Amino acid sequence: MTGERILGLAPPAFWALAAVYCVLVAASFATLWLERGRPASLPASELRQRVRSWWLMVGLFTLVVLAGRLAAIVAIGLVIFLALKEYLSLIPTRRVERATLLWVYLTIPIQLTFAYHENYELFIVFVPVWAYLFITMALVLRGETQGFLRSVGMISWGLMMTVFALSHLGFLLVAGDRVIPVAGGAGLLFFLLFMTQANDVAQYVWGRSLGRRKILPTVSPNKTWEGFLGGLVTTTVLAAIAGPLLTPMPIAWSAAAGAMLAIAGFLGDVTMSALKRDLGVKDTSAMIPGHGGVLDRLDSLTFAAPVFTHAYRFFFFP
Q1: Bridge partners of 79?
Q2: What does each C-alpha distance from 111 to 44, 76, 295 come to in angstroms?
Q3: Alpha carbons 220 and 119: distance in angstroms, whole number
């Protein structure tokens, strides 16, 4: 990738990030206006907590991207570690399974090493093939047959939804620098993250404003057709505008990518909702005020990141 950079970022990525900060400033002022007259002695409202958390998350994203490729991969690894840790803390584990968890955590640096070196062949098979077989073998060698199938399924599912799915963020960032002349891997990663998170917000706003007909009342009672379709249209329009600036995709392809991210993000969201309902918890943790846990914030990306990465790679990678 060539061309003059601004603070280490390609100009489209820099200006896109600047636009997000403008939105956060506007959201902060809007929160102050909505809460005018609220006694200072009361705890911060959920809206104010959410805006503060967004400031923190965008700030960390900025620092990571500016720090360079290796720092970004390390930061993504930390996020995956927190997501995996949350998942493993939620599911009921026995002594025989806990002895295997060290191997589960070790898959994170190995998987991200393949991403860092753009080794797609190993990146794509390591978790679903090698890690799966190794962990199955480790459980077998423990000699405990009671609940064996449950253990393999539970650990493998968590491994796929956290380590494998979220490691696509690192692969997209690194590989994008090599093949994208527009805004580099940072621009491509920004497009994925911004569209997925914008879809979450749009679905929430449209659902609260117009939502009447529920989609999956037994899984996620607050999800409505109006919210889903409103988010789909909003994300498609935003992607059509941002895609040509941040990626090599023309308007039509960008709009299609936005629609795909909206659908995949919704499926990731309700899948994690099904997990939480099965386990009888509301949030995966209380780490991010106003948002819940890391998995609550990244649930949409567990579907959106791999779906977008492989679709993009199929059509646009040389």
Answers
A1: none
A2: 39, 11, 19
A3: 38
